[in-house]
Amino acid sequence: MQAHTHPWARLGLGERPIFLAPLAGVSDHPFRRLCALHGATLTYVEMLSATALLFESPRTYGMMDRHASERILGVQLTGKSADETARAVAILDALSFETIDLNMGCPVAKVVKSGCGSAILRDPKRVYETVKLATEATGKPLSVKIRLGWDRQSYSYLEVADAAAQAGAAWLTIHGRLRCDDYSVPVDLERIAEIKRKLTIPVVGNGNIFSRADAVYMQERTGVDAVMVSRGALGNPWIFRDIAGGDASVTIGEWRDAVLAHLKWQAEAYGLTSGFAAVCMRKHLLWYVKGWPGAKKLREQLSHIESLEDAGALIDAFAAGITASGETLRLPVTQEQQEGRFVWDPKYEMDRKLDRGVGDELMSPPESASI
Length: 371
Ligand SMILES: Cc1cc2nc3c(=O)[nH]c(=O)nc-3n(C[C@H](O)[C@H](O)[C@H](O)COP(=O)(O)O)c2cc1C
Description:
The protein is an alpha/beta fold. It has 2 domains: 2-246, TIM Barrel (Alpha-Beta Barrel); 252-329, Non-ribosomal Peptide Synthetase Peptidyl Carrier Protein, Chain A (Orthogonal Bundle), CATH 1.10.1200. It is 45% helix and 10% strand. It is built from 18 helices and 9 strands. It has helices at 7-11, 29-37, 50-54, 58-63, 82-93, 109-113, 124-136, 157-166, 189-198, 212-222, 239-243, 252-270, 275-289, 296-302, 308-324, 332-338, 348-354, 360-363, and strands at residues 18-20, 43-44, 48-49, 73-78, 99-104, 142-147, 172-175, 203-206, 226-229. Strands 1, 2, 3, 4, 5, 6, 7, 8 and 9 form a 9-stranded parallel beta sheet that branches. The structure holds flavin mononucleotide (FMN). Residues 21-26, 46-47, 76, 103, 105-106, 145, 175, 206-209, 230-232, 344 line the site of flavin mononucleotide.
């Protein structure tokens, strides 16, 4: 009987799945393919707004594009109410996704202002109703991603996690920070462990996973069933190979091939000559060269690229220069991330607004729409 089958076995995820988080403005199919190629077992479309889905926003439908080579794909949703969320889940149920996640942790102001994301954490009853109606609206495994609570006066993780599990969530992902926390706040492993001890459904740990050592540490300290990687995959799709126990070091040849593959897939997805494709690619390119010694000029050039072809030529020439110098390099960004110095650069917010971030218009119906 399906209800007794482990949800990850049902999805064919294997013993120790490694998740790539839904990442707004980032986890489109070119990036997901690269992560899957290097060992991510489950990847996600970036967070969608239930409101936008119900109003058939073309941009939202565009965000759901899937590449034919993607074997297992999840989609993530956030909604203003239990009813709205369930109606949007019913739409997703009919589309080609293997699993659906409900976002109850997004801290972005415009998202919480409309009652979505981590706003839901303040109301465990609403969590229960939302998950209950949503699971009734789909035959696919439905999971929930939460934070620990709203602020230090309102840690709601135990009530919220319990409500989600009681209502039928297939698993729970916990980002071990509060809504009010920024990335400088350490991930609270003790509280993640507490959730894991209380729940019988699988628990996925999230927050500050930048290397295999981080993943092992989180698993040992908390007992979580799997980890979800977020910032750790930016510019470093090899992190999945590393976490799975493979080679953590990346040669210049591997680096070059991966960046060029990303550019090729970006061109296939959005068009080789599309300025949009190039603008969306800038942040990835800057992540790929973050930390490279002698790459100051390259970084400057990549931050302004107008075409994918120009970007490819710059990457190629840079890699050729390093190879000619006889250096066999280990990807410096990995070292930097292992030391935990990787921070989200607010200047990328600009790119997110330009490209595929969750915009205000997606959180509320178009003015002309009637309900
Ligand atoms: C660029 C970016 C976009 C994100 N978009 C989403 C999203 O769409 N859905 C989601 O659940 N979390 C999103 N997050 C949050 C991450 O999934 C994750 O919970 C958080 O970054 C903590 O993990 P980390 O410390 O490993 O980065 C995003 C984070 C970043 C940096």
